[in-house]
């Protein structure tokens, strides 16, 4: 730990980043407050505007034992990018690392500084008919997306960030300020251990991510959507397999929406209507999206028509109802679930995954568990059936009849995660990563050997444990 | 190093694997001879038939300081799976680790023992309409594919092995015989550092890979092929971009074949004919393959017709000739190039990659380099344009007018790799990995920090450097 006073740390770091690059007091508020949960207190917030400044900050912090928490757009949900309550951690915001965004259209790749956001990246790519198709309910930075290995709703087609990462640049704490370049703008490169994977999903631990080269994709020229009601749990996977067999080249989303989830959104999000009106929302529905890179010119393919024909054949086999088309409206319903759930009360979020072959069974068992053991809680589950991810969110409603209490929440978390991990071969953090909010479960479920390796890796690049808000050792 | 005699090592290991599991003398020949290059001498060859036996072997070797070289089907091209000439290395063949091949059709995944071959895996998957679509000119084991991170001709559509690896099991040398389970049968799982990536592309160093869970894919119901002649180098990338824009959902291969490469195959492979006959083979051609998971039922799509229409529109813009259809014949030409090249003389293989935007320029510059500095050598280049990989192979022809000499080959390798690495931002090993045959270039081009990390990683799981034939430290 640092033996310097707060004033000495501030003075030392201000010398590096200049007065514009250092925030104090009320200016730090947005950097101290987690996107949805958690609040900390920073010693100061740094906003370096060059790699050289980041290197100098890393060197200075390594020399003086000052802790750094890298932060992108601070949109994460596990507290990994916010400082703790000690007031001893320096937030290193990448928000001014935005100078480089070099698009290589022919290579379908982009070299981009860590502080550029997903939305801005896609705005830059659009004139070239390209996009970075990770679809999320937030606008993170590229660095944050790598640190969290974000997945999102279109993973089944495009993969997660790791699948699209060609190269990565990081600044290490050991050797202090050293720049490590990992990979090049190449799709095939097998020249020893691929070190960049050590920093994907790192939650900002051990190194400061400063630049990446990403593979980007052709922006679709056509899409098709439908919201369908399956005839049974078993029918859901039959439908998915049939869809992958017949139209798998185009499948970009296969999202499950529980009745509770749809109802929460419909009841509480003003401009949203029930797509099944005048009938009530069903117990479960699936949002299907297809995308095609090309127009009809050479294929003659009308994607929506193909989907409609397919769904007609599925009627009475796997589906009993369907709302066709109007992708914007259907996605608006899907993306409004979180807002609707929050309106009901205090969400207790479970971002879990299981093998998709067991997803419907898991959801049913987990709902039964909540009904039996926590009958005053309300399940609002939705998720990504095709990739096995589910946001099994539970709401402590305003009208639950008893006040929110942390011990009950803890007991619920322990029960659900145990079911996911022990009974369903799943993951307690599918796409939000690990941070202070769920590090307990990392410590519970990571094997001693895995932790020994993680500790060894950390000791190689950050032996004093100065970087990040989580310790995987 | 071991202080035991050869007989003591053999006796100790025979106690573990039994007489059927240990080979000596002439029975070792196939395990000592590299697939294309190199020959070593093993102390003995072990063929354990269970995880428990592998663990016991690892423990015994760790205790006695005996070196192990894991070997799959021994099809690699960089010498990573063959023993050195010392006679002190024990080959650990995974050929009897074949008991597990559990297909989860609904999860589109398979848990498979390391010793199962690609061909056998695909035979098991076929009845379910699935496949593991890494397309190679060999039949490696699953373990070997992971250790080499194989890519192949369809990478642009399906990715490499790393992209399809959900979980991995390895036996470590430290703690001796410890089984490390990394990941589960999940597509979304972000729970700390993803350690399995440390062992992908490891060339068998540091740990013995014993089992994996792979994502598998829907076997295509339709495919379409064409062999086209571009109007210019610039047209090649224009054609690729147009194809990705219009028919990118289906693009599975976009392979470049130089005139020399086609001619070598046509001249020397008996059952092969020139698809351009009666005209001679052109200076350069591109093998295009499209695949669709579905039939025409819902899309109305005839894939070959779509490709033909597309190519019609490209005439005089980017292409000047095309041979349509007959995929089997066109792929036979593509896959016969290596055989044809070997018939000409001694191949000097360059498995390199560059950003695909620079691939045509690189090939032209590299051909010019050979013509200027090594005019007695003959270039037979072909490759994977869409992923930037190229087999820039050079032949020391029987009629070169001077005998093959190692110093000249070394000079050529240094020159070509320097061009790839320094001038074109490329890789000196795109898909064959690193082994004794090219470790020199790892030592030349890996940064000191990257090597320090690799050394640190190795020390965590194999501190005595007992496992594998390469040392990345």
TrEMBL record, chains A, B:
It comes from the Bacteria. GO terms for biological process: respiratory electron transport chain. Pfam families: FAD-oxidase_C (PF02913), FAD_binding_4 (PF01565). Its cofactor is FAD. Residues 38-219 form the FAD-binding PCMH-type domain. GO terms for molecular function: FAD binding; oxidoreductase activity. Keywords: FAD, Flavoprotein, Oxidoreductase. This is FAD-binding oxidoreductase.
């Amino acid at each position: 730990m640092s033996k310097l006073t707060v004033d000495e740390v501030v003075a030392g770091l201000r010398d590096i980043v200049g007065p514009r690059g250092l925030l104090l007091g009320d200016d730090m508020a947005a950097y101290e407050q987690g996107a949805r949960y958690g609040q900390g207190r920073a010693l100061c917030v740094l906003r370096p505007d060059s790699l050289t400044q980041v290197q100098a900050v890393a060197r200075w912090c390594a020399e003086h034992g000052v802790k750094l928490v890298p932060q992108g757009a601070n949109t994460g949900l596990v507290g990994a990018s916010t400082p703790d309550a000690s007031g001893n951690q320096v937030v290193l915001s990448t928000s001014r690392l935005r100078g480089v965004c070099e698009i290589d259209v022919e290579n379908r790749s982009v070299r981009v500084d860590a502080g550029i956001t997903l939305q801005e990246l896609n705005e830059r790519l659009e004139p070239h008919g390209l996009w970075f198709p990770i679809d999320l309910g937030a606008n993170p930075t590229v660095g944050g997306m790598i640190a969290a290995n974000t997945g999102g709703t279109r993973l089944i087609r495009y993969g997660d960030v790791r699948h699209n990462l060609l190269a990565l640049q990081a600044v290490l704490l050991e050797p202090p300020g050293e720049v490590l370049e990992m990979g090049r703008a190449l799709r095939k490169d097998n020249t020893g251990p691929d070190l960049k994977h050590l920093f994907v999903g790192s939650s900002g631990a051990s190194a400061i991510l400063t630049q990446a080269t990403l593979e980007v994709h052709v922006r679709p020229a056509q899409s098709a959507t439908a919201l369908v009601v399956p005839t049974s749990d078993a029918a859901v996977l039959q439908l998915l397999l049939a869809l992958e067999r017949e139209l798998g080249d185009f499948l970009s989303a296969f999202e499950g929406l529980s009745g509770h989830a749809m109802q929460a959104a419909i009841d509480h999000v003003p401009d949203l209507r029930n797509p099944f009106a005048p009938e009530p929302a069903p117990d479960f529905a699936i949002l299907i999206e297809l995308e095609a890179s090309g127009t009809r010119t050479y294929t003659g393919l009308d994607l929506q028509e193909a989907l409609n024909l397919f769904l007609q054949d599925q009627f009475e086999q796997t589906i009993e109802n369907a709302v066709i088309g109007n992708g914007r409206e259907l996605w608006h319903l899907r993306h409004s679930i979180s807002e609707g759930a929050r309106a009901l009360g205090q969400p207790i979020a479970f971002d879990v995954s299981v093998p998709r072959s067991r997803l419907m069974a898991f959801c049913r068992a987990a709902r039964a568990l909540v009904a039996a053991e926590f009958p005053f809680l309300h399940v609002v589950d939705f998720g990504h059936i095709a990739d096995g991810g589910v946001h099994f969110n539970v709401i402590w409603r305003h009208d639950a009849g008893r006040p929110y209490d942390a011990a009950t929440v803890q007991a619920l978390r322990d029960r659900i995660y145990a079911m996911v991990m022990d009974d369903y071969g799943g993951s307690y953090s599918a796409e939000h990563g690990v941070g202070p909010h769920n590090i307990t479960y990392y410590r519970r479920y990571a094997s001693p050997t895995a932790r020994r390796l993680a500790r060894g890796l950390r000791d190689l690049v950050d032996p004093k444990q100065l970087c990040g808000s989580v310790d995987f050792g």
